[in-house]
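Attaching the record inline, Q. Sequence:
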Amino acid sequence: MKLTPLQDWVLVRTSEPNEKTPGGIIIPGTAQEKPEEGDVLAVGKGRFVEDKDSKEKIKKKTFVKTTVRPGEHILYKKYAAREVEGDGKELVLVREEDVLGYLV
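Structure, as predicted:
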């Protein structure tokens, strides 16, 4: 299955959850939190943004390109992800505005 995101959506392969705490305590699978980081697999081309004047009338629409690129390791908002499954792997879709930053 090949999934190509539309608009400003970003397809992310999530990182594996931590199985141990920094102190060495093993966390059971049911108590592990889903990670809020992962590798970008694909991105949409961008979206149209409506420019409005002072009277709230739409003047024109401007196309804004997506700045996130495939291959980058990102951090995103905790509840912003929509889960999808592709080729037996757990993937998530997030909007570009929900990406908080890049992890180096």
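The mean pLDDT is 82. The chain is about 0% helix and 45% strand.

More tomorrow.
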